[in-house]
Protein backbone atom coordinates (compact mmCIF):
# COMPACT_ATOMS: atom_id res chain seq x y z
CA UNK A 1 0.00 0.00 0.00
CA UNK A 2 1.49 3.30 -1.09
CA UNK A 3 2.19 5.46 1.94
CA UNK A 4 1.73 9.20 1.67
CA UNK A 5 3.66 11.93 3.46
CA UNK A 6 2.32 15.46 3.79
CA UNK A 7 3.27 18.42 5.95
CA UNK A 8 1.34 18.41 9.20
CA UNK A 9 0.37 22.06 8.94
CA UNK A 10 0.68 25.15 6.76
CA UNK A 11 -0.24 28.80 7.21
CA UNK A 12 -1.12 31.23 4.45
CA UNK A 13 -2.71 34.63 4.01
CA UNK A 14 -5.88 35.50 2.19
CA UNK A 15 -5.43 35.98 -1.53
CA UNK A 16 -2.26 33.91 -1.77
CA UNK A 17 -1.79 30.75 -3.78
CA UNK A 18 -1.21 27.69 -1.61
CA UNK A 19 0.67 24.61 -2.72
CA UNK A 20 0.53 21.44 -0.63
CA UNK A 21 2.90 18.69 -1.67
CA UNK A 22 2.38 15.00 -1.01
CA UNK A 23 5.09 12.35 -1.34
CA UNK A 24 4.14 8.83 -2.43
CA UNK A 25 7.36 7.08 -3.41
CA UNK A 26 5.81 3.62 -3.66
CA UNK A 27 2.89 4.53 -5.92
CA UNK A 28 1.75 1.63 -8.08
CA UNK A 29 0.98 1.68 -11.79
CA UNK A 30 -2.78 1.42 -11.22
CA UNK A 31 -2.91 4.04 -8.48
CA UNK A 32 -4.67 7.38 -8.76
CA UNK A 33 -3.96 10.42 -6.61
CA UNK A 34 -6.94 11.99 -4.91
CA UNK A 35 -7.29 14.98 -2.59
CA UNK A 36 -10.05 15.58 -0.07
CA UNK A 37 -10.88 18.57 2.12
CA UNK A 38 -12.37 18.32 5.59
CA UNK A 39 -13.87 21.04 7.76
CA UNK A 40 -14.36 20.54 11.50
CA UNK A 41 -17.31 18.32 12.40
CA UNK A 42 -17.94 17.40 8.77
CA UNK A 43 -17.07 14.48 6.56
CA UNK A 44 -14.30 14.87 3.95
CA UNK A 45 -15.23 16.30 0.57
CA UNK A 46 -13.63 15.35 -2.74
CA UNK A 47 -11.53 18.10 -4.33
CA UNK A 48 -9.65 16.63 -7.28
CA UNK A 49 -8.19 13.43 -8.69
CA UNK A 50 -5.47 12.74 -11.24
CA UNK A 51 -3.24 10.06 -12.69
CA UNK A 52 -0.47 12.04 -14.37
CA UNK A 53 0.50 15.54 -15.59
CA UNK A 54 -1.93 18.29 -14.63
CA UNK A 55 -5.60 18.33 -13.74
CA UNK A 56 -7.61 21.48 -13.13
CA UNK A 57 -11.16 22.05 -11.98
CA UNK A 58 -13.09 25.02 -10.63
CA UNK A 59 -11.62 24.55 -7.15
CA UNK A 60 -7.98 23.51 -7.53
CA UNK A 61 -5.18 22.22 -9.71
CA UNK A 62 -3.23 19.03 -9.25
CA UNK A 63 0.30 18.74 -10.57
CA UNK A 64 1.85 15.29 -10.96
CA UNK A 65 5.42 14.92 -12.26
CA UNK A 66 6.37 12.22 -14.72
CA UNK A 67 7.69 9.81 -12.06
CA UNK A 68 4.42 10.21 -10.05
CA UNK A 69 6.32 9.93 -6.75
CA UNK A 70 4.81 13.17 -5.54
CA UNK A 71 1.92 15.47 -6.29
CA UNK A 72 1.05 19.08 -5.50
CA UNK A 73 -2.37 20.44 -4.76
CA UNK A 74 -2.61 24.10 -5.74
CA UNK A 75 -5.33 26.35 -4.32
CA UNK A 76 -5.47 29.73 -6.07
CA UNK A 77 -6.17 32.86 -4.02
CA UNK A 78 -7.25 31.22 -0.78
CA UNK A 79 -9.82 32.75 1.53
CA UNK A 80 -10.51 32.26 5.23
CA UNK A 81 -13.08 29.62 4.34
CA UNK A 82 -10.36 27.42 2.86
CA UNK A 83 -9.05 26.74 6.37
CA UNK A 84 -9.41 22.96 6.62
CA UNK A 85 -7.52 19.68 6.70
CA UNK A 86 -6.40 18.46 3.27
CA UNK A 87 -5.80 14.77 2.66
CA UNK A 88 -3.76 13.19 -0.11
CA UNK A 89 -4.82 9.65 -0.98
CA UNK A 90 -3.13 7.17 -3.27
CA UNK A 91 -4.96 4.05 -4.40
CA UNK A 92 -6.71 2.28 -7.18
CA UNK A 93 -9.45 4.22 -8.90
CA UNK A 94 -13.04 3.91 -7.69
CA UNK A 95 -13.92 1.46 -10.45
CA UNK A 96 -11.54 -1.08 -8.92
CA UNK A 97 -13.93 -2.05 -6.16
CA UNK A 98 -11.07 -1.82 -3.71
CA UNK A 99 -10.98 -0.06 -0.37
CA UNK A 100 -7.44 1.04 -1.20
CA UNK A 101 -8.92 3.99 -3.00
CA UNK A 102 -9.91 5.49 0.34
CA UNK A 103 -6.99 5.04 2.71
CA UNK A 104 -6.39 8.30 4.53
CA UNK A 105 -3.23 9.60 6.13
CA UNK A 106 -3.04 12.32 8.75
CA UNK A 107 -3.57 15.21 6.36
CA UNK A 108 -2.34 18.81 6.30
CA UNK A 109 -4.02 21.44 8.43
CA UNK A 110 -4.16 24.60 6.33
CA UNK A 111 -4.83 27.80 8.23
CA UNK A 112 -5.62 30.90 6.20
CA UNK A 113 -4.94 34.12 8.06
CA UNK A 114 -6.51 37.53 7.36
CA UNK B 1 -28.15 16.38 -4.82
CA UNK B 2 -26.27 13.30 -3.65
CA UNK B 3 -26.60 12.35 -0.05
CA UNK B 4 -25.13 10.06 2.58
CA UNK B 5 -27.15 10.17 5.76
CA UNK B 6 -26.05 8.93 9.15
CA UNK B 7 -28.82 8.25 11.60
CA UNK B 8 -27.47 10.31 14.50
CA UNK B 9 -25.11 13.27 14.85
CA UNK B 10 -24.51 12.64 18.56
CA UNK B 11 -24.92 9.47 20.57
CA UNK B 12 -24.16 8.60 24.20
CA UNK B 13 -24.09 4.94 25.21
CA UNK B 14 -23.06 2.97 28.27
CA UNK B 15 -20.19 0.51 28.42
CA UNK B 16 -21.33 -2.95 27.39
CA UNK B 17 -24.30 -1.78 25.34
CA UNK B 18 -24.83 -2.99 21.80
CA UNK B 19 -24.72 0.01 19.50
CA UNK B 20 -26.00 0.36 15.94
CA UNK B 21 -24.82 3.15 13.66
CA UNK B 22 -26.85 3.41 10.48
CA UNK B 23 -25.84 4.87 7.15
CA UNK B 24 -28.05 5.31 4.09
CA UNK B 25 -27.04 6.56 0.64
CA UNK B 26 -29.38 7.55 -2.17
CA UNK B 27 -26.93 7.31 -5.08
CA UNK B 28 -27.19 3.58 -5.84
CA UNK B 29 -23.49 3.23 -5.00
CA UNK B 30 -21.91 -0.20 -4.79
CA UNK B 31 -19.14 0.70 -2.30
CA UNK B 32 -19.77 1.74 1.26
CA UNK B 33 -17.24 2.42 4.03
CA UNK B 34 -17.10 2.97 7.77
CA UNK B 35 -14.29 5.03 9.36
CA UNK B 36 -13.50 6.35 12.76
CA UNK B 37 -11.66 9.61 13.26
CA UNK B 38 -9.66 10.49 16.34
CA UNK B 39 -7.45 13.53 17.00
CA UNK B 40 -3.96 13.01 15.65
CA UNK B 41 -4.84 9.70 14.01
CA UNK B 42 -6.75 10.82 10.92
CA UNK B 43 -9.43 8.60 9.39
CA UNK B 44 -9.01 4.89 9.91
CA UNK B 45 -10.99 2.35 7.90
CA UNK B 46 -13.04 -0.09 9.98
CA UNK B 47 -15.00 -2.04 7.35
CA UNK B 48 -15.79 -1.83 3.68
CA UNK B 49 -18.53 -3.35 1.54
CA UNK B 50 -18.61 -3.55 -2.25
CA UNK B 51 -21.94 -5.35 -2.60
CA UNK B 52 -24.98 -6.47 -0.66
CA UNK B 53 -24.04 -9.04 1.99
CA UNK B 54 -20.35 -8.59 1.18
CA UNK B 55 -17.88 -7.08 3.63
CA UNK B 56 -14.16 -6.71 4.06
CA UNK B 57 -12.14 -5.78 7.11
CA UNK B 58 -10.32 -2.52 7.10
CA UNK B 59 -7.40 -1.51 9.29
CA UNK B 60 -9.13 -1.62 12.67
CA UNK B 61 -12.08 -4.08 12.62
CA UNK B 62 -11.64 -5.39 16.17
CA UNK B 63 -14.70 -4.78 18.32
CA UNK B 64 -16.90 -3.97 15.31
CA UNK B 65 -19.10 -5.80 12.86
CA UNK B 66 -21.16 -4.61 9.89
CA UNK B 67 -24.30 -5.50 8.05
CA UNK B 68 -25.32 -4.76 4.46
CA UNK B 69 -28.70 -6.33 3.78
CA UNK B 70 -29.72 -3.71 1.23
CA UNK B 71 -27.61 -1.82 -1.27
CA UNK B 72 -28.42 1.60 0.16
CA UNK B 73 -27.84 0.78 3.83
CA UNK B 74 -24.63 -0.08 5.68
CA UNK B 75 -24.74 -0.57 9.43
CA UNK B 76 -21.86 -0.51 11.89
CA UNK B 77 -22.38 -2.57 15.05
CA UNK B 78 -20.49 -2.28 18.29
CA UNK B 79 -21.27 -5.61 19.95
CA UNK B 80 -20.27 -4.44 23.43
CA UNK B 81 -19.35 -0.78 23.52
CA UNK B 82 -16.21 0.22 25.37
CA UNK B 83 -14.84 3.64 26.32
CA UNK B 84 -12.02 3.33 23.78
CA UNK B 85 -14.67 3.31 21.06
CA UNK B 86 -15.58 6.89 21.87
CA UNK B 87 -14.91 8.60 18.55
CA UNK B 88 -16.31 10.32 15.47
CA UNK B 89 -17.68 7.73 13.03
CA UNK B 90 -17.94 8.54 9.35
CA UNK B 91 -19.73 6.65 6.61
CA UNK B 92 -18.93 7.02 2.91
CA UNK B 93 -20.07 5.62 -0.41
CA UNK B 94 -18.67 5.51 -3.91
CA UNK B 95 -19.61 4.11 -7.27
CA UNK B 96 -17.88 1.39 -9.23
CA UNK B 97 -19.12 2.88 -12.48
CA UNK B 98 -16.87 5.34 -14.37
CA UNK B 99 -16.53 8.23 -14.72
CA UNK B 100 -17.50 8.76 -11.10
CA UNK B 101 -14.24 9.41 -9.33
CA UNK B 102 -15.21 10.57 -5.87
CA UNK B 103 -16.53 9.24 -2.59
CA UNK B 104 -19.26 10.98 -0.64
CA UNK B 105 -19.25 11.21 3.12
CA UNK B 106 -21.94 11.60 5.72
CA UNK B 107 -21.84 14.27 8.40
CA UNK B 108 -20.52 11.88 11.01
CA UNK B 109 -21.78 10.45 14.30
CA UNK B 110 -19.98 11.53 17.44
CA UNK B 111 -20.27 8.57 19.78
CA UNK B 112 -19.46 8.83 23.47
CA UNK B 113 -19.27 5.65 25.52
CA UNK B 114 -19.51 6.25 29.28
> Structural class, judged by helices and strands of chain A?
mainly beta
Total beta strand runs of chain B? 11
The average pLDDT value of chain A, as a whole number, equals: 89
Please state roughly what percent of the residues of chain B sit in beta strands, choosing from under 5%, 5-15%, 15-25%, 25-35%, 35-45% or over 45%: over 45%
Mean pLDDT across the residues of chain B is 92
**Unreliable segments of 5+ consecutive residues of chain B:** none
Rg of Cα set of chain B: 13 Å
- Please report the total strand number of chain A as a whole number: 9
Number of helical segments of chain A?
0
Q: Per DSSP, what share of the residues of chain A sits in E-state strands of 2 or more residues? A: over 45%
Going by helix content, strand content and strand pairing, the class of chain B is: mainly beta
Question: How far is it from the N-terminal to the C-terminal residue of chain A, by CA?
Answer: 39 Å
Rg of chain A, alpha carbons = 13 Å
Instruction: State the share of residues found in helices of chain A, binned by percent.
Output: under 10%
SSE pattern of chain A, N- to C-terminal? EEEEEEEEE
- The best one-word shape of chain B is globular
Main sheet specs of chain A: 5 strands, mixed
Outline the low-pLDDT stretches of chain A: none
Amino acid sequence: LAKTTQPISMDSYEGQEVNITCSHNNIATNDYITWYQQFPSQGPRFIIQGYKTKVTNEVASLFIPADRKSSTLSLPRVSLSDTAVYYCLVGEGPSSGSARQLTFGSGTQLTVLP
Amino acid sequence: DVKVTQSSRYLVKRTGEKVFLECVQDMDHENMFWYRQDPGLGLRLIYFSYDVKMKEKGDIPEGYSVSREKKERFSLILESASTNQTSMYLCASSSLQPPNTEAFFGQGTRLTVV
